[in-house]
Design a protein that fits this description.
elongated, single chain, about 100 residues, mainly alpha
């Protein structure tokens, strides 16, 4: 079986960070859109930290879709890189919000 040109761990790392960043931007934009439309209440100071924590966590979890896609097309090295990148993002998320969680 021939290995694809982009089937590398570095490709997976780049995908993991890109999906987390774009997912965060997308979720923040959707949240702001709903706030401006009046569908969702604007964040108050007491829940704004909780909402940002959840937004970033959901953005990190979007990497599950990428991992499953890479498994389906059999890019196992890129899949490994995506798993490692997701784990790094989760560690950074936990480090940033550890005071709120513990």
């Amino acid at each position: 079986m021939n290995k694809h040109t982009f089937d590398h761990v570095i490709t997976g790392l780049i995908l993991a960070f890109a999906v987390a960043a774009l997912g965060s931007l997308m979720l923040t934009g959707v949240s702001q859109f709903f706030e401006q439309a009046g569908v969702m209440d604007e964040t108050t100071s007491s829940i704004s930290g909780r909402r940002s924590r959840t937004t970033y966590l959901v953005a990190i979890c979007l990497n599950i879709i990428t991992i499953n896609y890479l498994k389906r097309i059999r890019w196992l090295e890129a899949q490994r890189g995506t798993v490692v990148g997701t784990f790094i993002c989760a560690i950074v998320w936990f480090y940033i919000y550890k005071d709120y969680l513990l």
